[in-house]
Amino acid sequence: MSKETVLTKADIRRCALRWMPMAVNTFSYQYQQAGTVVFALGPALRKIYTNDDEYVEALNNHFNYFNAHPWMANLVLGAALGIEDEGGIAAKEAVQGFKVALMGPMAGIGDSLIWVLYPTIMGSIAGSLALDGNITLTLIWLALNIAFMFVRVWMFQFGYESGTKLISVLGDKVAMLTETLSVLGLIVAGALIPSVVKITTPLTYTAGESVTEIQSILDQIFPFLLPVLATFVCYRLMKSNKVSISVLILIIVAISMVCAAFGILS
Amino acid sequence: MSKETVLTKADIRRCALRWMPMAVNTFSYQYQQAGTVVFALGPALRKIYTNDDEYVEALNNHFNYFNAHPWMANLVLGAALGIEDEGGIAAKEAVQGFKVALMGPMAGIGDSLIWVLYPTIMGSIAGSLALDGNITLTLIWLALNIAFMFVRVWMFQFGYESGTKLISVLGDKVAMLTETLSVLGLIVAGALIPSVVKITTPLTYTAGESVTEIQSILDQIFPFLLPVLATFVCYRLMKSNKVSISVLILIIVAISMVCAAFGILS
Amino acid sequence: MSKETVLTKADIRRCALRWMPMAVNTFSYQYQQAGTVVFALGPALRKIYTNDDEYVEALNNHFNYFNAHPWMANLVLGAALGIEDEGGIAAKEAVQGFKVALMGPMAGIGDSLIWVLYPTIMGSIAGSLALDGNITLTLIWLALNIAFMFVRVWMFQFGYESGTKLISVLGDKVAMLTETLSVLGLIVAGALIPSVVKITTPLTYTAGESVTEIQSILDQIFPFLLPVLATFVCYRLMKSNKVSISVLILIIVAISMVCAAFGILS
Amino acid sequence: MELSIVQSILLIVLAGLVPVDKYGMTFGLRWPVITSVFAGLIVGDMPTALYIGGTLQLMSLGIASVGGSSVPEYGVGVVVAVAIAATSGGGVEAGLAIGIPVAMLMVQFDVIAKLSCGALVQHAQKLANEKNFSGMYRTLLCGPVLSFLTAAIPMAIAVFVGGDMVNAVLNALPAWFTGGLTVASKMLPVVGVALLLTYMPANKFFAAVMLGFVLVAYFSMSMLGVAIVGAIVCLVYWGYCADKNAASANSTVMGELEDE
Amino acid sequence: MELSIVQSILLIVLAGLVPVDKYGMTFGLRWPVITSVFAGLIVGDMPTALYIGGTLQLMSLGIASVGGSSVPEYGVGVVVAVAIAATSGGGVEAGLAIGIPVAMLMVQFDVIAKLSCGALVQHAQKLANEKNFSGMYRTLLCGPVLSFLTAAIPMAIAVFVGGDMVNAVLNALPAWFTGGLTVASKMLPVVGVALLLTYMPANKFFAAVMLGFVLVAYFSMSMLGVAIVGAIVCLVYWGYCADKNAASANSTVMGELEDE
Amino acid sequence: MELSIVQSILLIVLAGLVPVDKYGMTFGLRWPVITSVFAGLIVGDMPTALYIGGTLQLMSLGIASVGGSSVPEYGVGVVVAVAIAATSGGGVEAGLAIGIPVAMLMVQFDVIAKLSCGALVQHAQKLANEKNFSGMYRTLLCGPVLSFLTAAIPMAIAVFVGGDMVNAVLNALPAWFTGGLTVASKMLPVVGVALLLTYMPANKFFAAVMLGFVLVAYFSMSMLGVAIVGAIVCLVYWGYCADKNAASANSTVMGELEDE
Ligand SMILES: OC[C@H]1O[C@H](O)[C@@H](O)[C@@H](O)[C@@H]1O
Ligand SMILES: OC[C@H]1O[C@H](O)[C@@H](O)[C@@H](O)[C@@H]1O
Ligand SMILES: OC[C@H]1O[C@H](O)[C@@H](O)[C@@H](O)[C@@H]1O
Q1: Residue F164 and residue A122: Cα distance in Å, rounded?
Q2: Do residue D133 and residue D86 come from a single domain?
Q3: Which one of A249, B160, F124, F245 has the fewest beta carbons within 10 angstroms of its own beta carbon?
Q4: In F64-90, which residue ranges form alpha helices assigned H by DSSP?
Q5: Do D127 and D104 share a structural domain?
Q6: Are residues E185 and E225 in the same domain?
Q7: Which residues cross the membrane (chains D, E, F) (predicted)?
Q8: What is the mean pLDDT of residues E105-128?
Q9: F25, pLDDT greater than 90
Q10: E-assigned strands of A176-242?
């Protein structure tokens, strides 16, 4: 399974530097960060796959839904690249399983620490000082951000090395790894339903003085009923191939507008 | 395994109409709704089993403990009948496993929605209006109940069709289905112990000003200790065949009266 | 596997009477109650293993970390002795697995009931009465403690008999028992990390008026991060055999003092 | 006002139908305000009946028999209260003063009916095993009759002997009897659960029983949640069994090959 | 004071870079106080800029785009507010009066950009399959351009047409449009999740999907907790597969022995 | 009043027995009110002793050494307090003023004793491996002696040198020393847990370790709950192993058949 790796340190760094400025900038609801993943890893994959067809296959693999905190993603993408460099197209499923399995946890850690905690600490002080015309902490904050860029490049490289090691250790058990990771990925996917699909209804049922919230009735029937139903319907539609994803998204936007207009969803 | 089904639409409807008025009307602590289950399915089973011995065997199977919300039970019993019509006496265990596995969830959903939510909404308004001599909503409520009767008949039929489909799809894996459902049934049974056996003691231990509740000591030793012990003792007694169930029930009633008289249980 | 048992009732009682006064009196952080376990069971083990080497092997087995509530331990140690008497040195792993698996639960039950509940009830009354010069309940308490000593001796014997029965029933499945118990033991070990290793930091980060607690940041990154890290580091060091346990303990004490001096840990 | 004999009988029948309907068809008599319409039609005083029905309806919101538990039966209380209000001079107050205690007493009567039903169904099963199927059906049909009587008897006393008599009877019941039946209604579900365990492979899958227990005792999970977790376990176990079957089929094939 | 054409363009570019940087390099423009330094340099009034930056920074504490959600973009609000404050006579108040609504409006623009990006990336994938790789890269590079425009356009209106115009546009947007986009931003993540399920063996391991759901829906577990539980399941499954492989390897060996 | 030499020695012995009994026989000296009876007998002033015992008993409710933690030892405090109260003119107040700090100081002494016991038991194990079994027993018997000394030494100082001296020593202890020992008492349990992991198959069953951790860290489960969940896992694993053994036994049989 494992073969000569072809990527150099410079290749890895180049991937990191293509990833970082683009990260969420191609974000869409169906691909999420996949566009940027392709953009960032593309040249490195080209080096791994000299054969055009394998290259396209690998690209298509990376066009699959991916979303993590853009800083923490460096670790995951680095490792995925390592697995791919070591395992080649045969490791395609392992690469995908690996990315899906880790993206959820990385999003959780990154969002709470880097998107919430870090700017809350820096911002509360820098903001207060700025009101008094003091710019010091703002500049320090800026400098810290720049310093972190170097850390992020290093994280990508660290990920790459861990990935190659992982695969060379596993040997011919990559198929087993793939299946196992897909189990983890599916657990994460199941957990995403109630945590990212936030569909609730503000409808109430008023009778005399008593007001009943429809949402609480739904919660009694089944927790997170609306997100589960929505996921199920979308999943069925996609599987059936009867409706393209773009059309599906337009339908959802249309439904959202109608439901918002009539106060059915919020 | 699967064979020609013999029941007609009219047979199913008849079962539903025998079930609905009788449902909890034969409720006893050892059989719960089983009496009515037998009463309702009896004629249909007779058609399935022309052989007397098989018929008796099937009846005995349905004399086993069953309890669900009487409206939601239509789905479960319909499906069980479907499985039985498709699988015959060989599916006996599957039928039983299926009923036990689904009765708990159906009771939970039905009790909260149909016994609590529905009459709370209707009753709070209808009651308020009635105090002013206004009868409108009361009559609407009555009409709704009647409309639901038709829905309940339909649920029975829907259940039946789902049941037959299930079995014809499974083919020779019915034994596996039985075992798997019995696992689900046992999980439900374990969950029933702390949720339906509500034995607690009101005893307290007063010393000076400090009052210690014996129940909280028991909770520290083991959560739901009394229900667990009671279940264990009853289970052992039944397994040992040393005491008949009727006697056991009398003993429990006697213990209840003594313990109530002395304030030991509440 | 199972063989003639050699211990008499008197041997068992002797073990109990050696265990009880010594129990936690040889407590150390690495062995916990293991010293006393060896002290208590030693003579009985000598009878089981006439061969010196097996005896030493058995002693070394009992020198492994053990900790339970000293009263409840009677049950566990009695049963372990029973397993050992029945299974001999071949049951060594089973004995160890059994002790580890049960020590956690026994500590939990004993600590809450015997160390907290019992003296709270007795002490609150006896203490109040003593303030008025009334000694009655204090003497009753003393008498109760003495009565319990007999119960504890009986518990040890009861444990022994259960242990021998267990092993003679299992026959040649002792290896399977060992492995299964080690799974339970490891679950308990995992649970011990967050429940007995209580490392937290009181550090705060003050900026303007806002105070950030470092501990809450750590909790966001990973719950019980410090205990997990400490366990991991210690585990690695021990596995590597690069540092002796005594040295490790000294290092921890030194770290504690330094960290306490600088307010890093609390 | 005096009730005619027809009115009396109609009221007794109406009261008796309350538990029968509650436990079966759910036409709606379990809900006081609906029952009051019929009681009002019988005594010919709809405003009073509706007022009593509305009052008891609001009083009983949220009360429901769940898992075979026995609860006060305000639907019966309505019929009693309407009858008393119509006949005694005391009006609505007098009606409620008797109706509510009767509703409460239904808890004890309900326990007794359910205990008796045990014997009934047991007998039905015996008949089934003797292949006396029509006897079995007839026996089971006594169930609703029992339900009917639990309410019809106190109603008959109220109508024919008078409300004061009902109250006298109520007060005469010893505490250990009423309290004992209440405790019994909480303890008796244990019979069903234990029975359930005896005819399922509880020994082989004891871990499943423990899992269900832990989910409720430690995580206070709802039955629906338990069912979802149970489904997860079943899917896993199903997959495991399928694997095992496939493997042993494999060996069998090999075994058979050898034989040839 | 009037803004020179260069200043205007610089401000528009700065505003446009806010989302680009927020979604990518994270130089820091997503945080108002940092952006205000640059806005201050451009208009040449650092004290006012810092004051506005500090105000909006404190106002936006804790707000972050998580899981692809769209949130008010106070970094853009800062640039607008600084520009208005510098040009209109109204000072800081006038600046914030326009800057804050614009920041809020970014929610809607962000949804539109993310919807458009869907088409972009889809097109890029098509090009990839046609082996037009440089076309693919070019297409993807339009992503940041879109991000840029979401902020640059309202900024350009504010700078060239004036703050009042911005407000007029804001008020003209119908409620079903803005509200609808807000609802859409909450519903659309369902597409990604469903897609995820389609290209993984969701049928075979449906129990895994349910487990993840239960952990969050019933136990409100964090994603990290889910990952730990997931790791436990994986280790167990890995061990099981290894056992199974070993066993079947065994049988295979035996089978092969036979063949000889 | 002066204490006779016999009284002094008896008091020292009584104090020393407090930890020995607490950690072993549990006659009851860990509970102040019981200890006070004996202290009262020795100094011959039962009312004062009981008063001190009752006071400290109520003060110490709920305090217990759990999982090897070190807690204030009010049983020792009682003996000190009774002795001081009897000898100094200050009465009960003077007694408690010294007794309570000494009780607190026992936390530190306890840590030191447990650290030393580590060396003791290690030595005992060494002797065991050298087959010097009586040496091993003798070494282990030093454990209770250590326990004894942790209380007897401060008591001796209090009795022979006087309460003020005790206070002076207490105040002289540096904060890093007492605080450090407190921190150490919380950190040191890590040694035991890590050791536990080293001699069990932690690698093979790492999922089990994680499961135990998750149950406590995420669900705050009690040890009893962990044990129940653990039992579930064990039953499942036991079933799995039994299946596996049966299957491989099967293949073996087939393999053997072939050989014939
Ligand atoms: O809980 C399920 C079911 O149990 C019994 O049959 C009765 O109490 C019903 O009212 C209830 O719906
Ligand atoms: O939640 C992970 C990730 O999701 C999207 O990509 C964006 O909302 C990011 O800001 C976020 O970090
Ligand atoms: O927690 C179990 C056990 O641990 C140590 O041995 C001591 O702290 C005991 O008092 C305690 O009962």
Answers
A1: 52
A2: yes
A3: F245
A4: 74-87
A5: yes
A6: no
A7: 31-53, 74-92, 141-163, 175-198, 205-238
A8: 93
A9: yes
A10: 204-207, 210-213
Q: How far apart are CA B80 and CA B86, in angstroms?
A: 10
> Do E228 and E167 fall into the same domain?
no
Rounded Cα gap, residues E205 and E217, in angstroms:
19
Report yes or no: B130 and D48 within 8 Å, Cβ to Cβ: no
Contact (Cβ atoms closer than 8 angstroms) between residue C84 and residue C58: yes
Residue with tokens 């009221």: D11
φ, ψ of residue B206 in degrees (nearest 5): -100, 130
Q: Using pLDDT thresholds of 50, 70 and 90, give the confidence band for residue F1.
A: low
Amino acid at C85: D
- Choosing from D25, D65, D193 the residue with most ligand 1 atoms within 8 A of its CB, the one to mutate for a pocket test is D65
Least Cα distance to D191 among B23, B111, B225, B227 occurs for B227
Cβ atoms within 10 Å of A15's Cβ, excluding its own: 27
What helix, strand, coil percent values describe chain A, rounded to 5? 75, 5, 20
Mean pLDDT in runs of 10 for chain A (266 residues)?
78 96 94 96 95 94 93 95 91 89 82 87 90 92 96 96 85 80 88 90 77 83 92 93 87 92 88
State the Cα–Cα distance between residues F65 and B147, nearest whole angstrom.
66
State chain B's mean pLDDT as an integer.
Answer: 90
Mean pLDDT across C49-57: 94
Give the model's pLDDT for residue B126.
92
Q: What residues contact residue A252 under an 8 Å CB cut-off, 6+ apart?
A: E184, E187, E188, E190, E191
Of A141, A115, A145, A117, residue with least CA distance to A127: A141
Q: Check pocket membership of B108 for ligand 1, CB cut-off 6 A.
A: no
Delimit the domains of chain C by residue range: 9-187, 198-261
Q: Which tokens sit at C48?
A: 């089981």
Are F99 and C9 in contact by the 8 Å Cβ rule? The answer is no
Task: Determine the residue of chain B that is closest to C124 in CA distance.
Answer: B210
Same domain assignment for residues D183 and D66: yes
Q: What are phi and psi of E131, to 5 degrees?
A: 60, 25
Residue E214 Cα to ligand 1 midpoint, Å, equals 26
The two three-digit tokens of residue A30, written as one number: 């169906």
Residue D121 DSSP symbol: H
Q: Are residues F231 and F247 in the same domain?
A: yes
**H-only helix segments in C49-135:** 52-62, 73-87, 92-110, 118-131
Residue numbers of chain B with a pLDDT score lower than 50 = 1-2
State how far the Cα of F159 lies from the Cα of F88, in Å rounded to an integer.
Answer: 11
- A114 close to A144: Cβ distance less than 8 angstroms: no
Q: Which of residues 69 through 98 in chain E touch A, CB cutoff 8 A?
A: none
Q: Three-state SS string across D52-85, please?
A: HHHHHHHHCCCCCCCCCCCCCCHHHHHHHHHHHH
**Domain range spanning residue E135?**
5-198
pTM exceeds 0.90: no
Q: Other CB atoms closer than 10 Å to residue F126's CB: what's the count? A: 13
Q: How far apart are CA D100 and CA D103, in angstroms?
A: 5
> Do residues D233 and B187 touch, judged by C-beta distance below 8 A?
yes
From E169, E198, E227, give the residue that closes a domain: E198
Which residues of chain D from 217 to 236 reach within 8 Å of chain F, CB to CB? 218-219
Distance between CA atoms of residues D4 and D11, nearest Å: 11
Domains held by chain F: number: 2
Contact yes or no for F154/F105 (Cβ under 8 A): yes
Same-domain pairing of D133 and D83 = yes
What pLDDT was estimated at residue A3?
A: 61
Name which residue sits closest to atom 1 of ligand 3, judged by CA: F67
User: Mutate which of C111, C115, C124 to test chain B, going by most B C-beta atoms within 10 A?
Assistant: C124
Are D80 and D95 in contact, with CB atoms under 8 Å apart? Answer: yes
Residues 6+ apart with CB under 8 A from A114: A69, A71, A72
State pLDDT tens for residues B120-134. 889 988 999 999 899
